[in-house]
Design a protein that fits this description.
Layout: E1 2-3, E2 11-12, E3 24-28, E4 31-35, E5 41-45, E6 53-58, E7 66-72, E8 75-80, E9 84-89, E10 97-103, E11 107-114, E12 117-123, E13 132-139, E14 147-155, E15 157-164, E16 167-173, E17 178-183, E18 191-197, E19 202-208, E20 211-216, E21 220-225, E22 233-238, E23 246-250, E24 253-257, E25 263-267, E26 275-280
Antiparallel strand pairs: 1-2, 3-4, 4-5, 5-6, 7-8, 8-9, 9-10, 11-12, 12-13, 13-14, 15-16, 16-17, 17-18, 19-20, 20-21, 21-22, 23-24, 24-25, 25-26
Length: 294
C-alpha cells in the first residue's frame, strides 16, 4: 500500500505477502479483492492500511486459477481458468458465497461489468495457431443463472476490455496484436467496427472522455484519440522505466503498475504531452502488475 497524498513522492505504508501471482485487483469499501491465481480470491480488510488483514479466501477447485475480478454492490464477478465465471455474494466479505456460475468451454482472460452484462474475453489455450478467441456477453440480471446472450469471434488473446456506453475497447496479442473497438449497443449481436495493428502487446486499457490510455510492457503508456470510436488515432507514447501492465486514472493523473520499477505517476492534463509527476521504486525485487486507487 502506497501513500500518494504527495503524488510527487509516493511512499510505502504497508505490505501484505501473497503466495501466488496477483493478476487483478478491485476495491470496494474497506476491502481489496485480489485475483490470486492458484490461491483463489483473496479478500483483504484495508480499513487500516497500516495493518492489512485477510478477511477471507475463496478457493476454487484444484488446478483452476482465478485470473480476474470485478466488484459491484454486494457481488464479486470472478474469472476462473478451466471453469468460466463465478458470481459471489460478498455482503459478508468474511464469508463469500457462490450464487451463480457461467460455464465456459474456453479459458477466460478478462472481464468488464456494465449494467446487467459482463463482457468476457475467453480463448482456447491449446488450439492451433491462429488462436481463436471469443468476446462474450453474459447477462447477469439473474445472479443464480448467468447466461451468454451474445458473442463475437476473432483471433488473438484478449488481455483487457473497457466499456463506455455503446462501445467496448479490446486489447491483446498472439497472433494478432490489435486494438479493437466493438459496438455493443445490441448485447445479443456485438459488432466489430474497427481494428488495427499496434505493434506490441497492451495489457490494460482505460477510456476517459475522448481518450483511451493503454499500457504495454515495452512502450509504457500509449494514448489514443477515440472521439470517433470508428477511427481511433494514436497521438502519443510515453515511455515508463519498467514493463507496464496495470493502469488507473484519477482526475489528471495516470497511475501505472510498472513491473519491477514499481509505480509511475503521470500527469495527463494534456493527453498529447504527458509528463512525469512522481514514481515509487521498490528496494526489493517486487513486480507491480495491477493498481487501484482509493
Amino acid at each position: 500500500v502506497l501513500d500518494i497524498s504527495n503524488p510527487a513522492a509516493p511512499k510505502r505504508v504497508s505490505r501484505f505477502e501473497l503466495t501466488d501471482y496477483a493478476t487483478d485487483i478491485a476495491i470496494s469499501g474497506n476491502y481489496l479483492y485480489v485475483a490470486n491465481f492458484e490461491e483463489g480470491l483473496q479478500v483483504l480488510d484495508i480499513s487500516n492500511v497500516s495493518n492489512i488483514r485477510r478477511a477471507s479466501n475463496y478457493q476454487v477447485s484444484s488446478s483452476k486459477e482465478v485470473v480476474a475480478v470485478t466488484v459491484k454492490d454486494n457481488y464479486a464477478y470472478v474469472a476462473v481458468n478451466r471453469e468460466g465465471m463465478h458470481i459471489l455474494d460478498i455482503s459478508n466479505p468474511a464469508s463469500p458465497v457462490l450464487v451463480g456460475t457461467y460455464k465456459s468451454d474456453y479459458y477466460p482472460s478478462c472481464l468488464r461489468l456494465q449494467g446487467n452484462y459482463i463482457y468476457l474475453g475467453v480463448y482456447s489455450r491449446y488450439s492451433d495457431s491462429p488462436q481463436p478467441t471469443r468476446f462474450r456477453v453474459i447477462n447477469i440480471s439473474q445472479k443464480n443463472a448467468p447466461a451468454k446472450v451474445g458473442e463475437l469471434t476473432g483471433s488473438g488473446h484478449i488481455y483487457d476490455i473497457f466499456t463506455v456506453g455503446n462501445y467496448a475497447y479490446l486489447v491483446g496479442e498472439y497472433p494478432e496484436i490489435k486494438f479493437r473497438v466493438v459496438d455493443i449497443s445490441d448485447a445479443t449481436a456485438p459488432r466489430l467496427i474497427t481494428e488495427f495493428d499496434v505493434g506490441e502487446r497492451y495489457s490494460e486499457i482505460i477510456v476517459e472522455g475522448n481518450y483511451a490510455f493503454a499500457v504495454g510492457r515495452d512502450t509504457g503508456l500509449n494514448i489514443f484519440d477515440v472521439s470517433n470510436p470508428a477511427t481511433p488515432v494514436r497521438i502519443t507514447d510515453y515511455a515508463t522505466p519498467g514493463n507496464s501492465s496495470g493502469i488507473e486514472i484519477v482526475g489528471n493523473r495516470c497511475y501505472v503498475a510498472d513491473g519491477f520499477s514499481g509505480l509511475t505517476i503521470t500527469n495527463i492534463a494534456n493527453p498529447q504531452s504527458p509528463g512525469l509527476t512522481g514514481k515509487w521504486e521498490p528496494a526489493e525485487s517486487l513486480n507491480a502488475t495491477s493498481v487501484a486507487v482509493s
